[in-house]
Amino acid sequence: MYSVIYALLKLYVPLSLGLIYGLTVKPDERESKVISSIVINILFPFLLFASIYGQALGQGSLLTLTAVASVVVTAFVFYLATKKPEYTLVAMKPNAGYLPIPIAYSVWGAEGVTYVAFYMLGSVTTSNVLAPLLIREPLKKSLRRLMKFPPLYAILAALLATAFSLQIPEDAVRLASEVGEAAPILAILLLGIDFSREMKFNPKDLSIYFSRVAISLTLTAIVATVYRISSVPLYVLLLEALSSPAISNVALANELGMDAKEVARIVMGLTIFVSIVVLPVLLTVLQVIS
Question: What is the pTM of this model?
Fold first, then answer.
C-alpha cells in the first residue's frame, strides 16, 4: 500500500502547492502558458526519449493500435449521437500524456512512461488528424499542426535509434533522463494553478466522460483478452482509458472556431473529477490486483 500512498502524495502535494500558489499569487495566464510550453516542448521530449531508447518494443505497438481504435470509435459514436463538435472533441482527445506521464513515472518508472509514449503515438496523432474534420477543415492544416508537436519527434527518434541499434553515449541518455525528470512534478504544479482559475464542475459533463470510458474500457478488454496483455502495459491502458480530456483541447477548439469556453469548462471540470476521485481509486485497485 506504501507505493499507492507515495504515488498519491506525488500527485496531490504538487497539485495542492500549485492550487495554493494560484489562489494567493494569481500568476498571469501567459506565464503559465510559457511554463506549460517548456514542459510539453522541451522536458517531455527528453523524458520520452530516455524512457524509450534501447527498450524492446514488446507490446507497445498494441497500445498504439488500441489508442487509434479508441479515438476513431469514440469520434464516430459521439459525432453521430450528439452532433456537437465540442462534445466529440473532448471525448475523442483524451489527456494521453500530460497527466498519465507523471502518474506512470511515479508508479512504474521509466517502463510506465515507455508504454504511455506508445499510447500517445496513436492517440495524439489520430485525434489531431480527426479534430479538424469535425468542422470540415482541410486535412493539410491538421497535419501541419501535428508537425509542431515535439513529443512525437522524441518518440519516433527513440524508436528509430533503437531499431537501427544506434549507439548513443550512456551519459547523454542519462542526462536526457535527468532533464526530463523535471517534467512530471512541474506539469502537476501547473495543473494546480489551472484549477485555481477554474473550479467549476457540472455533473452533467460526467455523461461525456463515462461514455468515453465505456468505449475505451471495452476496447481495452478486447485487446487484453485476445493478446493476453498484463502487468504494466495493461495498467497503462487502464490509466489511459480513465484519463480526463486533454487540456490542449481548449486551444484547439479556439483555433478551430468551436465554443472554446464550453470546452474549457468541460475539460477543467473533468480533470478535477479524475484527479480527485478516479485516480486514487484506480491506483488502489491496481495495487490490490498486482
Answer: 0.85
